[in-house]
Design a protein that fits this description.
With 95 residues, this protein is α+β, with helices and mostly antiparallel strands. Helix content is 32%, strand content 21%. The chain is globular, with a radius of gyration of 13 Å.
């Protein structure tokens, strides 16, 4: 895995994604600073993220189905901690 953002929400996102989807590639970027003053920015510094994740679990799935798997893995963090999550879900070897 590459260098990932630090913080309790980012760490929990990574933990859940690794546990549920066993990625071969996981890149998480914290974009919260770009949204300061906008709706959903809670001041925690961990409200908006972008993820690129490669997993064999996406085999045979379309883009929407892949994103649903990611949201399922993230679970209740989307209700409680994360306002926005940009997802790029790919198969291993795709770029």
């Amino acid at each position: 895995m590459t260098d990932l953002p630090r913080g309790p929400v980012a760490a929990e996102l990574v933990r859940r994604l690794e546990s549920e989807l066993e990625p071969t590639r996981l890149e998480l970027r914290n974009d919260s600073d770009q949204h300061a003053g906008h709706a959903g920015h809670d001041g925690s510094g961990e409200s908006h993220f972008a993820v690129t994740i490669a997993s064999g679990a996406f085999e045979g799935l379309n883009r929407v189905q892949r994103q649903r798997l990611v949201f399922r893995a993230v679970g209740d963090l989307m209700d409680r901690k994360v306002h926005a999550l940009q997802i790029r879900a790919i198969l291993p070897g795709e770029d």
